[in-house]
Write a structure and sequence with these properties.
This protein is an alpha+beta fold. The strands form two sheets. The chain has a five-stranded antiparallel β-sheet. A two-stranded antiparallel sheet has the order 6-7. The radius of gyration is 20 Å and the shape is elongated. The termini are far apart.
Amino acid sequence: MAASDVYAALNAAIISPGRSIDLWAAANGAPALADLVPVLGLFGINSAYVLTQADLAGDNRSVTLTASGVFGQPGAGTANTYAVAATLTYTDSARFTLTLRVVDSRPWTFATFFPMLPDSERSTVDTEQARGIRWTTSFLKGA
């Protein structure tokens, strides 16, 4: 697909005011963006994913969309999502890349982003001071 086709499809999907774009709808609604669907799938995005303040730039070889949004695990509650700066790039080699950079005022943590981590086996001391390997909170969440 030509970069100019990708640019035109993304540009047509940007809605004012707010310069918002639903990446999922755009990818599923324009043939020039069809190869974006599996990229979104890598992030667990399989329904509406709206970004705002979208800026689009491009030439005959590449297209770059920058925007703001929110991201979390599929089905995550508001407390488990983070504000992100999104960059979608298309190159004339027919490759889409999506980068989401956390820009939230809260620091990113495993415990918040992955609230349902399974317990793990760790070396602990029980109430009688006996050391052993026991099931306890995931080591990725800390103590």
